């Protein structure tokens, strides 16, 4: 699924949120009311069969990445809640489908079954609560880890104004209590000047760029031929 080689993790451009060290124009864009670790995955879906990746195909690739991240976070912090914040219901359904496909390894399943026969629930088998829902429905609630889906396939600009709405970005990112992972793409991170002519969209873009400057980032290419739909 992942195209090799992957690029290395890139350190944030802004290492501190103090006023003195922020780039011009960024200081007035608050990201959160408390320190939260930020990460940005620049997703690129690709296929050897075609240059054009359809929207739904890209959504399933994005969902596969989100499901993999959920699994890793569960292994690292099994007792912490996880949110996957999606802009639309199609992403929500794709992530739920991807999560349903992930199964435990055979040895873990067998060991868990043995404990089940003895009516014992060991702490290291405790599953964190995973909530996958639209950003609007997650408003007002929080989780330790939040994965935000804000990516688009190459050449797809129809949804840009919606994704670059500042309020929507703020609601999604501010759900996190410890770590926020934002999955985006060049179509969203580097839109055309025409898209940014709208004042509200430009404000959302400035907010997104402020996040990007503070986040550890990673470029990830996903082969859609390897993603189950």
From TrEMBL:
<dbReference type="InterPro" id="IPR050534">
    <property type="entry name" value="Coronavir_polyprotein_1ab"/>
</dbReference>
<keyword id="KW-0347">Helicase</keyword>
<keyword id="KW-0547">Nucleotide-binding</keyword>
<feature type="domain" description="DNA2/NAM7 helicase-like C-terminal">
    <location>
        <begin position="55"/>
        <end position="185"/>
    </location>
</feature>
<dbReference type="InterPro" id="IPR027417">
    <property type="entry name" value="P-loop_NTPase"/>
</dbReference>
<keyword id="KW-0067">ATP-binding</keyword>
<dbReference type="InterPro" id="IPR041679">
    <property type="entry name" value="DNA2/NAM7-like_C"/>
</dbReference>
<protein>
    <recommendedName>
        <fullName>DNA2/NAM7 helicase-like C-terminal domain-containing protein</fullName>
    </recommendedName>
</protein>
<dbReference type="GO" id="GO:0016787">
    <property type="term" value="F:hydrolase activity"/>
</dbReference>
<keyword id="KW-0378">Hydrolase</keyword>
<dbReference type="GO" id="GO:0043139">
    <property type="term" value="F:5'-3' DNA helicase activity"/>
</dbReference>
<dbReference type="Pfam" id="PF13087">
    <property type="entry name" value="AAA_12"/>
</dbReference>
<dbReference type="GO" id="GO:0005524">
    <property type="term" value="F:ATP binding"/>
</dbReference>
């Amino acid at each position: 699924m992942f195209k090799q080689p992957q690029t290395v993790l890139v350190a944030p451009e802004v290492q501190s949120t103090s006023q003195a060290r922020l780039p011009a124009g960024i200081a007035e864009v608050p990201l959160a009311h408390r320190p939260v670790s930020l990460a940005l995955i620049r997703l690129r879906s690709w296929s050897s069969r075609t240059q054009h990746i359809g929207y739904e195909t890209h959504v399933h690739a994005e969902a596969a990445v989100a499901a993999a991240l959920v699994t890793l976070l569960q292994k690292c912090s099994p007792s912490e809640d996880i949110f996957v914040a999606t802009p639309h219901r199609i992403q929500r359904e794709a992530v739920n489908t991807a999560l349903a496909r992930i199964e435990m390894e055979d040895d873990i399943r067998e060991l868990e079954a043995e404990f089940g026969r003895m009516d014992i629930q060991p702490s290291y088998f405790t599953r964190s609560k995973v909530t996958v829902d639209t950003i609007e429905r997650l408003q007002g609630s929080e989780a330790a880890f939040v994965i935000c889906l804000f990516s688009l396939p190459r050449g797809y600009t129809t949804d840009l104004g919606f994704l670059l709405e500042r309020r929507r970005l703020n609601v999604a990112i501010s759900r996190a209590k410890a770590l926020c992972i934002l999955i985006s793409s060049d179509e969203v991170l580097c839109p055309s000047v025409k898209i940014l002519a709208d004042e509200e969209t430009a404000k959302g873009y400035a907010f997104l760029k402020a996040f990007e400057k503070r986040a550890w980032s990673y470029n990830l290419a996903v082969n859609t031929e390897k993603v189950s739909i």
